[in-house]
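Problem: given the chain below (226 residues), write out its structure.
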Amino acid sequence: MLFGILPVYAVIAFLCFIPAIVIHEVSHGFVAHLLGDPTAKKQGRLSLNPLSHIDPFGTVVLPLILAFVGGPVFGYAKPVPYNPSHFKNVRVGELLTGLAGPASNIIMAALTVVIAYLVATFAPQAPFWLFTVFYYFIFINLVLAFFNLIPLPPLDGASIIALFLPDKALRQYYQIQQYALPILLILMFMGPYIFGFNPISVYLGATAGNLADWAFSLVPLPGPLL
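Solution.
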C-alpha cells in the first residue's frame, strides 16, 4: 500500500476518495428510486455535487487523518435517506439498496483498471503521476467496497442481515442502526488496543490491498509505480 509516504500522496488519496464516496451514496439513492422510493430524489440526494453529501467529519476529517498517518483511506458521507416502506419487498429492497454502494465502487475500480491499461498501452508517453492517481482511485474504491461489505450496522453489508430477520426483529434492527455508527468507530480505533493489532487494517489489506495490487499488475507500466 502506498499511504503514509509523503503528504502529496495523502492529498491524492483524499481527492480520489471524494468522487468514490459521492458515487457510492448516489448509487444507494438511485437504486432505491428504481425500486419505488422517492425519498432521496425529493431531498436532492441523487446529485453528484459533493456538497450534497459531505459529512464534515466522515468525509473530510477522518479520511485526511487516516491518509496522513498511513492508514487505508476510508470514511463516510451523509447517508442517503430512503424509506423501505416504499419497497414492494422490504428485505429484497434493503439488500439491493445496501449493496448498490459497494457495487458502484467495484465497478469504478474495474473501469479504472481498464482505463489505466489502455493509457499504458496506447499512450505510454502519458505522465507517470497519472498512473499513481489511477492506483489510488482503484485502491480507495476497493477499500470502500470491502469495508462497507462488513455485515455490521450501519455498514451496507448489514443489509444482508435484514433478509433473515422476522418482522418484529427487523423493526428493532432499524432502531439499533441509528446508534451503531459511533459504536463502530470506537471499536475501529480501540481494536489495536483490544486485539494487539488493527483487524480492520488487516482485513482491508488482505482484500482491497491485495486485489488492487493484483489488478494493477495487469497494467503494462514502464517501471515501478513509486
